[in-house]
Amino acid sequence: MASHWILGPGAIGRLLAHSLSPLAATTLIGRRALPERQALTTPEGELRAQFLNILTVAQLASETHEPPAFLHITTKAMAAEAALEGIANAIPSSTPLVLWQNGFLAQPRITQTWPGPVLCATTTDGAYLSGDDSVVHAGRGHTFVGDLNNQHDELAEALAQTLTQAGLAATQVADIRQRLWQKLAVNAAINPLVALHGVRNGELRGEAYAGRVIAVVKEVAAIMLAEGITPPNIGQGEEAWLALVWQVVENTANNKASMLQDVEARRPTERGAILGPLIESAQRHGLACEELRGLDDELATLEESFNR
Ligand code: KPL
């Protein structure tokens, strides 16, 4: 079976490594050393430990390794390009990449610059780290795989089959661009607000925040229309986007969104990958984006305060 390298040992990277290792030669790569004995808690609460093949970027550079059939990049969105550059010398430039980032920043940039195939994956599987040696697979979801130019359907299909065999249900799709923007639209309406106010997703339904959610969705809906992105649910336009956002808020009411987790850990957020493409698109299409820009500025100010 084809071999896999996974660059970025965060929650999704480790979930992938745990899932693929029993099936195929799999190497997890990060900047710092991690214990090789790693534990996974399944959504059913079962604890599984296994030895993963883990290398640091420095080790990878100093030794010769058989190149992988797929390089998965599972870093945060803003770190993906630098992470790829850091190991690009260790692999042929024809190596297929799989980008697992949120937003729509790393995907178009790397698709344009990497000579080999670039697949994008978007997943609703939920996972979080619970230490240097353990990850919790909090909820089973579904992963969609495709490439932005629909030139690598067979490769995406092969990967989707492998992921499914590994226990992560996946489907090859011809509309990955739509799906990435749809997720970005929902993330833009939820993540910045909960991160700025330190609240769980469900609190957005309250009087204090609902008006701002509606104002953000209004701008996002106009941008989606200009980008040719339709809502995934029944219906069209602002109302359908708003219904989708409230549905996700409801389904994830108790969640601490990823951006809130970043803010609490005083880490840079993914605002550049989520709000950035929306603001850039609004400018390109001459659309209003005061709300989105306001959120971006507030997050930038908050992030600056982390360095003081
Ligand atoms: O995807 C999410 C995230 O946390 O990044 C949402 C949908 C906001 C759920 O928390």
TrEMBL record:
Chemical reaction(s) catalysed: (R)-pantoate + NADP(+) = 2-dehydropantoate + NADPH + H(+)
InterPro entries: 6-PGluconate_DH-like_C_sf, 6PGD_dom2, ApbA, Ketopantoate_reductase, KPA_reductase, KPR_N, NAD(P)-bd_dom_sf
EC numbers for this chain: 1.1.1.169
Signal peptide, first to last residue: none
Keyword terms of this UniProt record: NADP, Oxidoreductase, Pantothenate biosynthesis
All copies of domain Ketopantoate reductase C-terminal, residue ranges: 175-293
Domain of life: Bacteria
UniProt GO molecular function: 2-dehydropantoate 2-reductase activity
Positions of the Ketopantoate reductase N-terminal domain: 6-149
Pathway: Cofactor biosynthesis; (R)-pantothenate biosynthesis; (R)-pantoate from 3-methyl-2-oxobutanoate: step 2/2
Function in brief: Catalyzes the NADPH-dependent reduction of ketopantoate into pantoic acid.
Protein family according to the UniProt entry: Belongs to the ketopantoate reductase family.
Protein name per Swiss-Prot or TrEMBL: 2-dehydropantoate 2-reductase
Source species: Halomonas alkaliantarctica
